[in-house]
Amino acid sequence: MRNVREKAEMLLEQYGRTASLFPHNVAMISLGDDFRYSHPIEWDQQYLNYMTLFNYINSNKDKYKAEVKFGTISEYFQVSILFRCGMYLLTSLVLHQYKRSQSQ
User: Fold this and answer.
1) Which of 5, 36, 43, 55 would give a disulfide with 32, using CB separation of 3.0 to 4.6 Å?
2) pTM for the whole thing?
3) What averages of pLDDT result for each successive group of 10 residues across the chain (104 residues)?
4) Which of 50, 26, 18, 15 is nearest to 36 (CA)?
């Protein structure tokens, strides 16, 4: 279990650095490369290894303040669009409040 904890924490460090480049709390991390997953065994090994780490991280959400899962590009863009709409609404609300306070 020690190895799983160490690997999970290393993965979270890497994901955290990448996530800091995104304007929202969802990071898109691609796995593999052009020549990866050409054999079914590669997918099985990678999937099982990542799921072991994901399960460990997700079972310790209070400690790590993170949730990790496999997702699709569509899911990522749905979150990204919702974030941008939310920022637009928040900006509009702040501007509205500012204009209202200026007119009083």
Assistant:
1) 36
2) 0.72
3) 91 90 81 80 91 96 91 83 65 48 59
4) 50
